[in-house]
Amino acid sequence: MTVYSPDLIASIRKASRELVREHGFLKPTLAGTELSPSAVHTILEIGQEGYLTAKDLSRRLNLEKSTVSRMLLALEQRGEITKTRQETDARSHNLSLTPKGRDTFKAVTAYGETMVKSALPHLAGATAADLERLLSAYANALKEVRTGQTAKTQEKTIGGADSFKIVEGYQTGMIGDIAALHARTHGSVIGNGPTFESLVSKAMAEFVQRLASPLNNSWSVVVEGQIIGSVTIDGEDLSGNIAHLRWFILSERLRGKGLGRRLLDKALSHCDAHGFNEIHLWTVKGLDAARKLYEQNGFALVDEYDGDQWGKSITEQKFIRHRLS
Predict the structure, then answer these.
(1) How far apart are CA 85 and CA 98, in angstroms?
(2) Where would I find the HTH marR-type domain in this sequence (predicted)?
(3) C-alpha distances in angstroms, 272 versus 101, 106, 321?
């Protein structure tokens, strides 16, 4: 068993207390809002995931169910969140943000980002990457002590046995993985062959060079180093404050697990947080499951036409979602 210096332990405890104070957790409200720290964290968790259940929040926030229930009631009364009964379990509800809640999420996110960005230039003796790695390791270690689960096990059990982790940003191999996934999944509709896969690869290769822009982002389901589900928001290739939803794809093995909705929610939350007036997407007729999901989330079909850019004559469709006011 490793023996740690009492002075080292005292220094870590002191730094932890100072972090709590500097982030404002000793105050009754947090992040420039009128909300309690637990309420702010609730909005952040729901906003990042798209939707969660009360059980999910209790586990993520390490709070008693009764405490979470009272907090959710208060947030619902404030108009920050809304509940939707689950289709598969009438006793449970999915919690999502209202337009007011999304505005709060945007403001809190901006507040936190500003705090981090203003502090990073003042780091002494460490890089930003060092800080991220060590803070994550310490947080995971604390959680492991509390739950008895390793970080790897925690990831597998979040949301149940059928849950998969969604990661953000560039992933190694994503151009090839996503292009191949499109070809295998949509080949029967668009046509098998090199044309479709080559066009997807070329467009993605251009986009990933711009992924560092805050307007752009991508979310992927990664299993054993391979992307098996993904969605992307390109905030730069369309003018007029319009976002482009691109490369929304799921492997067949992920169907029916709610991951498509979770991916789309992340993309929509990103667009709402950055204030895009509209989101445009182009798809092809015949992808009925995706169309149903689009329409459930406010997209409307605005154009339909025949095209052959993918190597086969098909009916293409354009959908638009206007920003919720």
Answers:
(1) 15
(2) 5-140
(3) 11, 8, 11
> How many whole angstroms from its chain centre is CA 94?
16
Rg over CA atoms, the chain: 22
Residue 126: what are its φ and ψ, rounded to 5°? -160, 155
d(CA 273, CA 89): 30
Q: Which regions of the chain does DSSP assign to beta strands (E)?
A: 81-85, 93-97, 166-168, 217-223, 226-234, 242-250, 278-284, 300-307, 314-322
CB 190 within 8 A of CB 310: yes
Amino acid at 124: A
Cβ(54)–Cβ(65) below 8 Å? yes
Q: Find, among 242, 234, 177, 226, the residue nearest to 207 by Cα.
A: 234
Statement: residue 188 has pLDDT above 80: no
Domain membership of residue 68 (yes or no) is yes
Q: Is residue 131 in some structural domain?
A: no
Give the position of tokens 């490369």: 247
User: What order of strands is seen across the sheet that includes strand 226-234?
Assistant: 166-168, 217-223, 226-234, 242-250, 278-284, 314-322, 300-307
When divided into structural domains, the chain yields a total of 2
Paired with 304 in beta bridges are 317
The domain in which residue 51 lies consists of: 6-122
Residue 70 pLDDT > 90 = yes
Token look-up 């909705």 returns 261
Confidence of residue 164 (pLDDT cuts 50, 70, 90): confident
pTM: 0.53
Nearest to 232 by CA among 268, 256, 259, 261: 268
For the CA atoms of 85, 103, 245, 288, what is the dihedral angle to 10 degrees?
20
